[in-house]
Design goal:
With about 270 residues, the protein is an alpha/beta fold. It has eleven helices and seven strands. Helix 2 crosses helix 8 and helix 9 packs antiparallel against helix 11.
Length: about 270
């Protein structure tokens, strides 16, 4: 039995499920497998809050339509949780607790047998307090349980024609805020504006890290190597227009999860 068949069989044994569905490749693969295994007894649910980047909901809707799974949207209120706003290293625990409270209640109310996530085997090698929240809520992780890592996730997604197979990771906007800096809607909105402005210049993968009045732009290595004085100025202008007083374009290539490391390099001042 292939890995895909094993995953479908595992999900099919659940009788019905709700998938925590961001539209990223991991949750999209789980949703696609659930649709194949369970048909209309599978439901993909996307959570919307101020921490969701602009465009992510539309992308999730498009993926759900393409893979043929029923899709719904709920609102989550993680910003009402003091532990989330405080933004210690366990922020994701409070975020996922809110999400799984909501999804668990939906599943119970409407008779779905399980809640599934897109966590994969590689997630155990990073700081993932959200997995603790998932365990407390009885959430199942088919990919992680099968030992499927990110590379195989993308391979399986390509084989199934999942539109987000090549989609870069796009975690919540709060992941751009250093631990210890309070998260509030105005900060999240400013980050979102800045990232949209830089994307409008043609950069597909990037992060704008929030350091009070400073916006720190991180780009992949190929984009960094291609920067000119003019394109640097365009990026600075875009981020300043989003509300930052100072801008730094990081010398180091973008790396997901870099806020888990110490931030030591300060800043290039925008005029």
């Amino acid at each position: 039995m292939t890995t895909r068949q094993e995953l479908e069989a595992r999900i099919g044994s659940l009788e019905s499920c709700v998938v925590a569905f961001s539209g990223g490749v991991d949750s999209s693969l789980v949703a696609a497998l659930a649709a194949r295994a369970l048909g209309d007894r599978a439901l993909a649910v996307t959570a919307v809050s101020p921490a969701l980047a602009t465009g992510e909901l539309d992308g999730a809707r498009d993926v759900a339509t393409a893979i043929g799974i029923e899709h719904e949207v709920i609102a989550t209120a993680e910003l009402e949780r003091e532990g989330y706003r405080r933004n210690d290293r366990d922020r994701c625990y409070h975020c996922k607790s809110e999400l799984y409270d909501q999804l668990g209640a939906l599943a119970k109310r409407r008779g779905y047998a399980a809640v599934l996530s897109g966590a994969n085997a590689d997630d155990t090698g990073d700081w993932r307090p959200g997995l603790t929240a998932a365990a407390e809520h009885g959430v199942l992780h088919p990919l992680l349980e099968a030992g499927v890592g990110k590379n195989e996730v993308r391979e399986l997604a390509r084989a199934l024609g999942v539109p987000s197979a090549e989609k870069p990771a796009s975690p919540c906007l709060a992941s751009r805020v250093p631990y210890g800096t309070v998260v509030d809607p105005s900060v999240l909105a400013q980050i979102d504006r800045a990232e949209l402005a830089v994307k409008a210049l043609g950069y597909r993968v990037l992060r704008v890290r929030h350091y009070d009045t400073l916006g720190r732009v991180e780009l992949p290595e190929d984009a960094l190597c291609a920067l000119t004085l003019q394109t640097r100025e365009e990026i600075v202008e875009a981020v300043v227009a989003a509300g930052y007083q100072e801008v730094e374009i990081a010398d180091e290539p973008f790396r997901s999860g870099s806020l888990n490391a110490s931030f030591t390099k300060r800043l290039v001042v925008a005029s």
